[in-house]
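residues and backbone:
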Amino acid sequence: MRILSVVKQVPDSNAAVKVQADGHGIDANGLKLVLDPFDEFGVELAIQLREKRSDVTEVVAMILGPDKASEALRVALAMGADSGIHINDESFQSQNELFAAHVLAEAIKKQEQPFDLIVCGKYNIDLDSGAVGPALAEFLGWPHVGAVQGLEIADDGKHFTARRRIEGAEEVIEGDLPVLLTIEKGLVEPRYPSLPNIMKAKKKPVSVITGSDLSISQDLKNATEMLSISPPPPKPDCKFIEGEPEEMAKELVRLLREEAKVV
């Protein structure tokens, strides 16, 4: 069984993100970039399956992005992935997740050995749409289960049972491999790469795929358009109420009724 973990490099959730002056993107200058936290769940799940099952022969991490994206790919390798694939071409750079899924699908189809399981994060914290996983499954013609929080693979390595939460209940899905799963927080706890594993990751094989290696339809690149990005509105000044408790309570009710207009 070969497992593919699709990952992405995104801005650190603790970083101060600035919007470009034209409102069409974020200012990446000096911005700390990391492996997407939800993709870490997919990497960890793949590694744990390899550790538990003798039939898992390889865990491969794949990333689409510029040169700098190799840093996030090396984190996945340091966590325990066996090898990496870096899809790196200027013509592939786009904020359109459908186009990204198309490029990923074409790269996967080019692999000499097929995959039995593909795992992705439920969504990426930069664009927050969750479109890559389902779209990738569609381009590959694979079944897809989203927001998975429980997984068992049969001893024969041909069938799976996935669990996910729905409103007021838990949904159980059974099916056959191959399948693409998007992983929800809580299924596994990602490990922290140790220093020895970080050093070993530098020697693990990474193949690079460029535009000349794939037949990509650029039509999808403009299938969706990001109109603008804007920072959240500034928080209003905090108003303090002073006085005796009874007076403060009356003043609070007045403010809620006359200014906030919520009562």
About this structure: The first strand starts at residue 2 and ends at 7. Residues 37-52 form the longest helix (16 residues).
